[in-house]
């Protein structure tokens, strides 16, 4: 049996409570919703499950509380194929979020970090084997900068590709020279200094502007598509663009995490960035266009069917 390419994810784990309503309530308004449900979340957890779903062997490094939320998250992550040997149980309550999903699929959310605040440099120092045996290290901005930097230094010493999804948007602290690939959406790119984005052309400009932060930059521009610039995207820092797939829109929540996780899985399998970008773009499109109850069944075969005849420019 061929060993799966390994992705190590250092990041947040949240218990996500989803509420569906016609629109987002105004301040002081009480709005009657249509339904609610829960699902595993946190950018770290979401991206770890997406990477596993798209063919990678995944090891998660993080923290959960000694509570029912933590127990449920462990069960779901294990069922998705994510390794949890380096997920600590701590006394603080598990991280959680509440998201309101509008009828058109857009959403807004509030996040409480909880146990994720306990991910520290000492914990990272004990995970050198997990990071060193991987091909890709995946980071986000929902945990302390010091923990991210400690993990990136271990990865750099082992010659492992480091991907940072700078969400929420803030400039990388302590990561100078340690990030191979920066992934941001349009809002995050603008907040980091890439300028306003209203389509693929401006996304490509933003990707070039942000090359001071990483060797390669990817900017996701929602319904317009994806742009990349830097040494892994094209020669001489030229840009690569991949237009969006026309899909029947269901819900955008989590699409960015699917993109990042699928991208990490493909890069861990030594797939060149242009092809990995096309794959991740397709995986995110399928996520958006598929009802919530059917998303866990999506995998590489579905993405490859969608990509038939679609090429990057």
Total count of helical runs of at least 4 residues: 10
CATH architecture assignment name: 3-Layer(aba) Sandwich
What order do the strands of the largest sheet run in, or round the barrel if closed? 5-4-1-8-9-10-11-12-13
Q: Could you report the average pLDDT, rounded to the nearest whole number?
A: 91
Q: Which class do the helix and strand fractions yield?
A: alpha/beta
The CATH class label is: Alpha Beta
- CATH topology: the name is UDP-N-acetylmuramoyl-L-alanine:D-glutamate ligase
Describe the structure.
The structure is a single chain. By secondary structure, the protein is of the alpha/beta class. The protein has a single domain (6-25, 34-306), classed as 3-Layer(aba) Sandwich (UDP-N-acetylmuramoyl-L-alanine:D-glutamate ligase). It has helices at 43-53, 68-79, 121-125, 128-132, 145-157, 186-194, 200-209, 255-268, 273-289, 300-307; strands at residues 6-10, 14-20, 35-41, 57-65, 82-90, 95-101, 107-112, 136-140, 161-165, 181-185, 216-220, 225-230, 239-243. A hairpin with an 8-residue loop joins strand 12 (225-230) and strand 13 (239-243).
